[in-house]
Amino acid sequence: QVQLAESGGGLVQAGGSLRLSCAASGPTLYLYVLGWFRQAPGKERELVARISGTGSTTNYADSVKGRFTISRDNVKNTMYLQMNSLKPEDTAVYYCAADLSWSTNARLYDYWGQGTQVTVSP
């Protein structure tokens, strides 16, 4: 059983930065793909970025490429999302998720955090 808990959300002005953290617990976490998803009101949950178990492979949504950076520390069992040059359209609840498969489909991820709100003002 994997447990996830996000932190670091908040209110920021457009152009600003935030760093989200996802603390993970459970056995063999290094085997799990970790992902950041977000969901804005009235929209479907979408993948923002994902990272392989070793951290050697990453993948980003086109909308955040060049602005967001995903990373993980398997000693601290923590994943991060550094978000720079934030835009109002980045406003959403951000979730971390874990799964054994390399998938972009939120429905296939087995474990989820409770979410953290990110609000970007114009």
Question: Describe the biggest sheet?
Answer: 7 strands, mixed
Uncertain regions: pLDDT < 50 for 5+ in a row?
none
In terms of DSSP E residues, the strand content is over 45%
The termini sit apart by 40 Å
Shape: globular
- Helix content class: under 10%
Which structural category do the helix and sheet elements fall into? mainly beta
Q: H/E series, N to C?
A: EEEEEEEEEEE
Layout of strands and helices, then pairs:
Blueprint: E1 3-7, E2 10-13, E3 18-25, E4 33-39, E5 46-51, E6 58-60, E7 68-73, E8 78-83, E9 92-99, E10 111-112, E11 116-121
Parallel strand pairs: 2-11
Antiparallel strand pairs: 1-3, 3-8, 4-5, 4-9, 5-6, 7-8, 9-10, 9-11
Could you describe the 3D structure shown?
By secondary structure, this protein is mainly beta. Helices cover 0% and strands 50% of the residues. The protein has strands at 3-7, 10-13, 18-25, 33-39, 46-51, 58-60, 68-73, 78-83, 92-99, 111-112, 116-121. The strands form two sheets. Strands 2, 4, 5, 6, 9, 10 and 11 form a seven-stranded mixed β-sheet that branches. The chain has a four-stranded antiparallel β-sheet with strand order 1-3-8-7, with no helix packed on it. A hairpin with a 6-residue loop joins strand 4 and strand 5 (46-51).
